[in-house]
């Protein structure tokens, strides 16, 4: 099948590459010529494990191509995916200007029936808006489909190639058949394709992400409670997760969620509720708690060093990306922690396997950047762990004690065993567990 993907950000590039992998001919469109030229040469613009292999294979086999020319991509395509940014506006609502602008441009180019798919995460009613824009600019028949993505950064290729489910929102029977044929190779193991109306499809994405964000936030609240009453959140997590109705995933406490999806989607759903004169109280609480949780390590630092004790201190920080196996720093807790430390007069040297280039673009020389995890510890008064990269899980603790000015660790991801930290002689403060001193 011939496919056009408009937008080569995270969602667009994963979508286009994985669709090409099953034999489709995919043209990806981006307005930045330099980026397009680099992709044509096999240079990946994002870090995503496993994507580079498929990316380069499909470029070589000429199933995956790139262009800045929208008309060139639209003409042969049976299906057109819109994978464009929907950033939060000043009031928290999703900005649809990119999506609706692309719809208007597409309308002026199509000469035969096309299936136009919103892959971006969009508010309820967006398919209706896209349809209205298309109808206002063309008499050519078309169908608008809502097909939200459920990709987890770090395992996006697996999520696309072997999805838990595929959600397709359309009331057009021809479009339903085309989308079913397109996704058939990805659900051979029996995972469902769920057909529904467009509005239900759009709300499904927001509901899923908001529920997961709520689950994370609830466990962070439980972790904070554990510290007050002397319980161990790891034990509570295992006891709760053993209930099949709840499950084990998304129960790990930490310093809050970040990234491009959860913060934006929770905010957008809350705003959509407000626009429909409904107060989504639980989501408002989730956002409030998460903002506080991002700074949980700074609270612990102030308790340890005193209210004004951070001035002049130097900290090592492991982890800048919002989660491991990605270079995405959007809404990353590390950025909030760094801001607070700098404002308090402290200095920071950070290390992250993939996120440092993006932080350098954002913060410049406000902090220092280490070549590896141990170099970050030089002359540091304490180590802060913010992202649970695998490389941080089994360090040489004796060597760490030699490098640090004092054997002090504040762990925002609960990477280490408490008894082991005691045996090594560290002061070790984590989330929802007793302090080792």
Automatic annotation (TrEMBL):
Keyword Oxidoreductase attached: yes
Amino acids binding NAD(+): 30, 35, 86, 121, 153, 264, 330
Catalytically driven reaction(s): UDP-alpha-D-glucose + 2 NAD(+) + H2O = UDP-alpha-D-glucuronate + 2 NADH + 3 H(+)
UniProt keyword NAD present: yes
The UDP-glucose/GDP-mannose dehydrogenase C-terminal domain, residue ranges: 316-418
Family: Belongs to the UDP-glucose/GDP-mannose dehydrogenase family.
PANTHER family, per database record: UDP-GLUCOSE 6-DEHYDROGENASE TUAD (PTHR43750:SF3)
Pathway involvement of the protein, from the record: Nucleotide-sugar biosynthesis; UDP-alpha-D-glucuronate biosynthesis; UDP-alpha-D-glucuronate from UDP-alpha-D-glucose: step 1/1
Residues annotated as binding substrate: 150-153, 205, 250-254, 258, 323
MF terms (GO), sorted A to Z: NAD binding; UDP-glucose 6-dehydrogenase activity
Enzyme class: oxidoreductase
Enzyme nomenclature, EC number: 1.1.1.22
GO terms, biological process: polysaccharide biosynthetic process; UDP-glucuronate biosynthetic process
InterPro entries from the UniProt entry: 6-PGluconate_DH-like_C_sf, NAD(P)-bd_dom_sf, UDP-Glc/GDP-Man, UDP-Glc/GDP-Man_DH_C, UDP-Glc/GDP-Man_DH_C_sf, UDP-Glc/GDP-Man_DH_dimer, UDP-Glc/GDP-Man_DH_N, UDPglc_DH_bac
Name listed for the protein in its UniProt record: UDP-glucose 6-dehydrogenase
Superkingdom of the organism of origin: Bacteria
Keyword list, A-Z: NAD, Oxidoreductase
Active site: 261 (nucleophile)
């Amino acid at each position: 099948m011939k496919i056009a993907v408009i937008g080569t950000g995270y969602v667009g590039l994963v979508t286009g590459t994985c669709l090409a992998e099953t034999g489709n001919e995919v043209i990806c469109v981006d307005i930045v010529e330099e980026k397009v030229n680099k992709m044509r040469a096999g240079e990946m613009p994002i870090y995503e494990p496993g994507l580079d292999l498929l990316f380069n294979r499909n470029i070589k086999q000429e199933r995956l191509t790139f262009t800045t020319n929208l008309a060139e991509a639209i003409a042969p395509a049976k299906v057109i995916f819109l994978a464009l940014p929907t950033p939060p506006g000043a009031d928290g609502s999703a900005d649809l200007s990119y999506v609706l602008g692309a719809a208007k441009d597409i309308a002026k180019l199509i000469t035969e029936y096309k299936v136009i798919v919103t892959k971006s995460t969009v508010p309820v009613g967006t398919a209706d808006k896209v349809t209205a824009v298309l109808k206002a600019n063309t008499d050519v028949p078309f169908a608008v489909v809502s097909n939200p993505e459920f990709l987890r950064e770090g395992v996006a290729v697996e999520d696309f190639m072997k999805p838990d489910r595929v959600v397709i929102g359309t009331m057009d029977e021809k479009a339903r058949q085309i989308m079913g044929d397109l996704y058939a190779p990805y659900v051979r193991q029996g995972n469902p394709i769920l057909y529904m109306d467009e509005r239900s499809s759009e709300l499904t994405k927001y509901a899923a992400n908001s529920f997961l964000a709520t689950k994370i936030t609830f466990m962070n609240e439980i972790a904070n409670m554990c510290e007050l009453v002397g319980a161990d959140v790891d034990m509570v997590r295992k006891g709760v997760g053993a209930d099949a109705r709840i499950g084990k995933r998304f129960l790990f406490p930490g310093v809050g969620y970040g990234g491009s999806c959860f913060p934006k989607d929770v905010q957008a759903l809350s705003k959509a509720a407000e626009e429909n004169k409904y107060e989504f109280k639980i989501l408002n609480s989730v956002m409030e708690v998460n903002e506080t949780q991002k700074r949980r390590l700074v609270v612990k630092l102030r308790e340890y060093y005193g209210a004004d004790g951070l001035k002049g201190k130097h900290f090592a920080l492991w982890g800048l990306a919002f989660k491991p196996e990605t270079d995405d720093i959007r809404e990353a807790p590390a950025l909030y922690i760094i801001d607070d430390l700098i404002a308090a007069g402290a200095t920071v040297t950070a290390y992250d396997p993939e996120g440092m280039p993006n932080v350098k673009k954002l913060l410049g020389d406000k902090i220092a950047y280490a070549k590896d995890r141990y170099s970050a510890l030089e002359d540091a008064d304490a180590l802060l762990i913010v992202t649970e990269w695998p490389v941080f899980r089994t360090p040489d603790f004796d060597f760490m004690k030699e490098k640090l000015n004092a054997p002090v660790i504040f762990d925002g991801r609960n990477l280490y065993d408490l008894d082991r930290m005691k045996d090594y002689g560290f002061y070790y403060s984590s989330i929802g567990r007793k302090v080792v001193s």
